[in-house]
Amino acid sequence: MNTGYSYSKYWKTWSRVLKFDGSWSIEVNLTPINSSWQYADWDEEVKPIIIRRHLPPQHFKVVEELPTEIKEMMVEKLGEELVQRLLTEDFLSQIDYWDKYDVDYMRMIGPRDSGW
Predict the structure, then answer these.
(1) Pairing relation of β-strands 50-54 and 13-20?
(2) CA dihedral in degrees (80, 6, 35, 55; nearest 10)?
């Protein structure tokens, strides 16, 4: 289940779009803010699997393919197993908070079956 990927020119981040209904977007962080910067915080902004709901800008655009160099950078920083999870796992089926609470941000901290 993958809607596509979006890039924020403002934050210089890539996200996987889980759902977009024309106004709200639910996304998983794939890169930290300013990911090409040497001090980018992959451990705090990506590894915990951060899922957020927000109102994207009017020029919000979803693309079907994540650029190869972004995936390669993700594998280098996060490892193949976590990258596969971030790119393919059905996170929405694991979340029931969106309708019950006014939640716009959540972390899915911890391993499922791995040691990261």
Answers:
(1) unpaired
(2) -120
Would you list the DSSP string of 63-108?
BSS--HHHHHHHHHHH-HHHHHHHHH---GGG--HHHHS---EEE-
Asked if 51 and 28 count as a contact pair (C-beta separation under 8 A), the reply is yes
Q: Which token pair is 13?
A: 């981040």
Residue 27, CA distances (Å) to 19, 20, 21, 73, 114 in order: 7, 9, 12, 19, 23
Q: pTM of this prediction?
A: 0.80
Q: What 3 state SS string does 3-17 have?
A: CEEEEECCCCEEEEE
Amino acid, single-letter form, for residue 104: D
Q: Tokens 């979340």 — which residue?
A: 95
Q: What is the pLDDT of residues 21-44, one digit of tens each?
A: 888 888 999 999 887 777 789 999
